[in-house]
Design a protein that fits this description.
This protein is about 45% helix and about 20% strand. It is α/β, with parallel strands linked by helices and about 575 residues long. It has four domains: about 5-220, Neutral Protease, domain 2; about 230-325, Immunoglobulin-like (Sandwich), CATH 2.60.40; about 350-445, no CATH class; about 455-585, 3-Layer(aba) Sandwich (Glutaredoxin).
Length: about 575
């Protein structure tokens, strides 16, 4: 594909400059990237051409962003009936054999591999060809859109394999190296090849082992944690919006959060990726391109669940009114919501509508708002009953886990939810979501007044480790908060007041931030003037200490005595001062 450079470059210059065969030429431009097609339409199915175009405009910008933002913005695809290979790349031009796609119409992620060579831009003799091609197949594995449909995947290990003898073997080896040794290995290798600084000892610098030593370890235990395809494909159409109209796309895959965005072109947008199981998605639409935060908090937002499926979203005007089709997981989510009486957002919208539809005279009466609020909380209570009933009657449904996860927020919830969880199918309980819920139930059972506070260690802003156990001998308030949490920020002055009053009497505070960006965390600490120790692992809601303490909302705090026992929870304002006055007489 990228080998035999000199021979290929001479051949390409003759073919592209001197061909006299009838050709069509068309140009497609999206979001600052241009694709030029030189093509004999008789030899390439238009549907395959459209899929190749779709793959290019979805994957190539992601490859550029991840590996080389300075890669060519204009790319040429040449469909050559005289070419006997599958595909070859030189510079920013890719040549394809149309007959390959007649035989293999689903194998359009050949595009993903080939345009990665354009991103690579390694030049003449920057490093071994096996690594160049292995990285391109590694990227096809990570970013390819139709691998599963094409039956393309990484091969199982076999004793006769060598890392330098087959592209996909190399790609699998690279996945193993990232999982077992260095998560950034491929990016570092890629950059070294492009900068022409690659040397074989770079492997030892990255992992502590030579490439042959790594291969020996791989051969002894070639198991991969990550064996899936990039297998969901979500495409949409909202009206005829163009730039700067933007769709923001966030989802959770286990503990890993993912964020993406797309600028609409004639209403069209697309996202692709992979999830280990059903995953919650948040999509937000900014028709005027005025930013993600505004779109999420004041704009057009949709929450739902997806799996590794092909999902279509379409609407004449907005995300809120869009139809979502093609996803069994989404259909199950809709059925689940119908059973329980709607999502929290559905009930909130209904309460707002109830108030809005009230007569003016009703709105003047303070009791009217109380009645609307009472109906709202009655619906919430009924919804909780139905959620438990759903989990009890649907032991094999993923949404039974969703229901129980929402129901379990405090220790007293365990009496009703634990038996239902235990009755779920074993396969369901062993999923990431099931294991996570079980761990939270265990934590809730242990995090009670009178129990020993679980120890944890996290880094402060300077990277120094801080352990809760180091506070033994003092009364310490373990305060879970986040810079983006307005109630937390409103409570900080109360905690600061108590700290200043009692810090000389054996009282201290240890704050655990659920932020995922250190800059925002640090700025909030500075603005609020918080002098005590601040720690975080910057995993957001997946903060390890927060999971240990079963945190489902912030602010949440725990007052711990000098022996390390929890003596109070969720102390706010005057309640915190009163509790401290009692124990620090």
């Amino acid at each position: 594909m990228i080998s035999h450079w000199k021979k290929f470059m001479m051949m390409m210059s003759l073919v592209w400059a001197g061909s006299t065969r009838a050709q069509t030429r068309d140009t497609v431009e999206r979001n600052g990237v241009t694709l030029i097609w030189i093509n004999d339409e008789r030899h390439l199915d238009p549907a395959v051409k459209n899929r190749m175009t779709e793959v290019f405009f979805t994957v190539y910008p992601k490859e550029m962003k991840a590996y080389n933002p300075g890669a060519a913005k204009t790319v040429t695809f040449f469909v050559d009936s005289t070419y006997e290979g599958v595909a070859e790349t030189v510079g920013n031009q890719v040549r394809y054999n149309p007959y390959w796609f007649i035989k293999n119409p689903a194998d359009v992620d050949v595009v993903t591999h080939e345009v990665m060579h354009i991103v690579q831009s390694y030049g003449g003799f920057s490093g071994p060809g096996w690594l160049t091609e292995g990285i391109a197949d590694y990227v096809r594995y990570r970013m390819g859109m139709y691998n599963a449909q094409a039956g393309w995947g990484l091969p199982d290990y076999a004793p006769d394999q060598r890392y330098e003898e087959a592209y996909r073997v190399t790609a699998r080896f690279l996945v193993w190296v990232e999982e077992q040794k260095n998560a950034n290995a491929v990016k570092v290798l890629d950059a070294a090849l492009r900068n022409q600084t690659y040397k074989p000892d770079l492997w030892k610098t990255l992992t502590g082992f030579t490439v042959d030593e790594l291969w020996a370890q791989y051969a002894a235990h070639p198991v991969l944690k990550d064996t899936g395809y990039a297998a969901f494909w979500l495409s949409g159409l909202i009206g005829k919006y163009n730039s700067p109209a933007t769709i923001y796309f966030d989802y959770m895959d286990g503990q890993q959060s993912h964020s993406d965005s797309a600028i609409l072109e004639n209403g069209v947008f697309a996202f692709t990726g992979r999830v280990a199981g059903p995953a919650m998605v948040r999509m937000a639409f900014a028709p005027n391109g005025d930013g993600k935060e505004k779109a999420i908090y004041t704009g057009d937002v949709r929450y739902f669940y997806i799996s590794n499926e092909r999902i279509l979203i379409f609407s004449k005007d907005s995300l809120s009114n869009a139809r979502i089709v093609g996803s069994k997981t989404y259909d199950q989510y809709v059925a689940y919501n119908a059973f329980i009486g709607g999502s929290i957002m559905d009930l909130t919208k209904q309460a707002n509508l109830d108030y809005k539809q009230g007569a003016m005279a009703d709105k003047m009466d303070s009791n009217f708002s109380k009645r609307v609020d009472s109906v709202f909380h009655s619906r919430i209570a009924q919804r909780r009953v139905r959620m438990l009933a759903y989990a009890r009657t649907h032991p094999s449904s993923f949404f039974s886990l969703v229901a129980l996860s929402e129901l379990v927020s405090k220790q007293e919830d365990l009496d009703s939810t634990q038996p239902v969880f235990n009755a779920l199918d074993a396969d369901l309980r062993e999923t990431f979501t099931g294991v996570d819920l079980h761990q939270r139930m265990v934590s809730l059972g242990a995090i009670v007044v009178g129990a020993a506070a679980p120890d944890f260690t996290q880094g402060d802003m300077q990277g120094q480790s801080v352990s809760l156990s180091s506070y033994k001998g003092k009364y310490v308030l373990v305060d879970f908060w986040a810079s983006w949490c307005e109630p937390c920020r409103a409570e900080n002055p109360n905690v600061l007041k108590a700290y200043q009053k009692y810090k000389d009497n054996g009282f201290d505070v240890l704050s655990v931030s659920l932020d995922d960006k250190q800059e925002r965390w640090a700025e909030a600490v500075k603005q609020d003037g918080l002098p005590w120790k601040q720690v975080s692992d910057l995993k957001g809601w997946n903060n390890d200490a927060a999971r240990l303490y079963a945190i489902r909302a912030v602010p949440t705090n725990f007052l711990i005595d000098p022996s390390g026992k929890i003596i109070a929870m969720n102390l706010r304002g005057e309640a915190l001062e009163a509790a401290l006055a009692k124990v620090l007489k």
